[in-house]
Specification:
- The structure is a single chain.
- With about 110 residues, the protein is mainly alpha-helical.
- It has one domain.
- It has 2 helices and no strands.
- Helix 1 packs antiparallel against helix 2.
Length: about 110
């Protein structure tokens, strides 16, 4: 039997398993995309809620001069805004969401 026909026979014999594996991989990728999408939505909601909280802190007045948690009343909003810049998935622009690397999880992890 020529080498090419033996290779073709191997593909035919194992083709069904290969197709099943491809379909399983595709479903896993879809689940991971949806999972990552929901994670980003949760982060965006948390960032939005934090912004509203910061705005409330900024408009409030405090006569307390004792730092809490190492920060004064006036320093807390600045500190929080710096954290939001890294946390909010939309901070870098909507285009940054569609980068391929953030949608991938290791295939072996459920």
């Amino acid at each position: 039997m020529p080498a090419d026909s033996k290779h073709a026979e191997t593909i035919i014999l194992h083709g069904g398993g290969y197709r099943r594996q491809q379909e399983a991989d595709r479903r896993k990728i879809e689940r991971n995309r949806w999972r990552r999408f929901l994670e980003l939505a949760d982060r965006w909601e948390h960032a939005d809620r934090a912004r509203r909280f910061i705005a409330t802190i900024e408009t409030s007045t405090s006569t307390d001069t004792v730092p809490r948690g190492g920060l004064s009343h006036d320093e807390w909003p600045t500190w929080a805004k710096e954290r939001l810049t890294a946390y909010d998935p939309l901070e870098a622009g909507i285009e940054s969401l569609w980068g391929e690397s953030i949608w991938c999880y290791v295939v072996g992890i459920p």
